[in-house]
Design brief:
Helices cover 60% and strands 0% of the residues. It has 101 residues and is an all-alpha fold. It is globular and about 30 Å long. 31% of the residues are buried.
Amino acid sequence: MEKIQLKSGYTKGFLPKECNYKNYTMLVAIANYSSNPFCSSSAEMLLDETCSIEQKERYIETCGGFMYAVATKDFAEAWNRADGSNREALIEALKNNEIEL
């Protein structure tokens, strides 16, 4: 799959209101680098511009603890809930200066 290009910002209504730019950067990291297929496809769905805000909000309400933390919490919370592959994805994005803390 082609790597998702990190944008320097995103338009209002792209992600649910509980998400911010820091969450966006973590979602891109998981979509691009995680070898956990469930998490990477979940991140891709949340980043999909054709999915409605309502679909994204419903997904966030029902997703697991790690993806909930990536989408709505801070880096520390996401790190604490991550498995090995997702920690590696976060590390790779940090090394590439792709995550805003």
